[in-house]
Amino acid sequence: MLDLPLIWAGLLSLAVFIYVALDGFDLGVGLLFPFLADDKERDTAMNTVAPVWDGNETWLILGGGGLFAAFPLAYAVVMPALYAPFIVMLLALVFRGVAFEYRWRDSAHTGIWDASFVFGSFIATFAQGIVLGAFVQGIDVQGRAYAGGWWDWLTPFTMMTGVALCFGYSLLGAGWLILKTEGDLRFRAYRLATFAAIATFFFVCVVSLWTPLLSPEIYDRWFSMPNLYFVAPVPLLTAIVAALIAWGIAKRADSLVYPATVALLGLCFVGLGVGLTPYIVPRAITIHEAAAPDSSLLFMLVGALVLLPLILAYTAYSYWIFRGKVQPGEGYH
Q1: Of 89, 128, 290, 310, which has the fewest beta carbons less than 10 angstroms from its beta carbon?
Q2: For 131-145, how does the pLDDT look when each residue is reduced to its tens digit (9 = 90+)?
């Protein structure tokens, strides 16, 4: 018998991770915009993400819509707890998208649209980090409803995770620019990647030390048997991947920095997953308690098995079509 709630939890986790890996780099490019030399470099940087940026956000929609459909109880609890950062994130993504489009059509105000692009990228990333931190630290639930206050999501831990995600996305963005550009912009991306990598490694350590202190239950899940067998390799693998990123930056290995950064974030994702499983609302509601009826999950799974390969196929096709280095003056508008 299929464990449908567990399958759907896996699909939603995959959608969230793909979103982080893909939309993370184009948000990261926006975060790096102020540190590029001139409009020529900014044009080239934006042209590296122009063909794919809006498609990357498909995975965010899939994650949110899937949570609502597959785990309605979790959606009903999480959304009231995190309305403010979610709304700010969505508005920032809309604002950023408008700035992205109008930058090419209103050359008289390019500076304003560049600033808007940076602002939208930063606010969206910071809000996503706050959502992550608030989710990990726990949500106050009584019965089957959110019982906390309007500002429970705003804590030192969530502010720290917001800053940490900004640096993580900046490293993804720098890795993407390294992969897609040449000349001075590529050189500058390597310099930015160095600073972003140092900050990202620091915050990975801080989050790893702080998270088990948030709750005795997380501590037990990380350091008790048999979970310790799953958690123990994560720090070692994280150190290896961090060393690969550092080596890739030092040796100017263009094709290594971005995928290694994705792997680093993936390992962080695995560590958090071990600490939170089997809960979908941490320490309050389990995956099976929050799930929709099996008949509904099975019906949606049939659709997902058709649509997910199509989404993956057109995503892969778009990246394949626009592969290779982007030259100054070239691009898709």
Answers
A1: 310
A2: 999 988 888 888 888
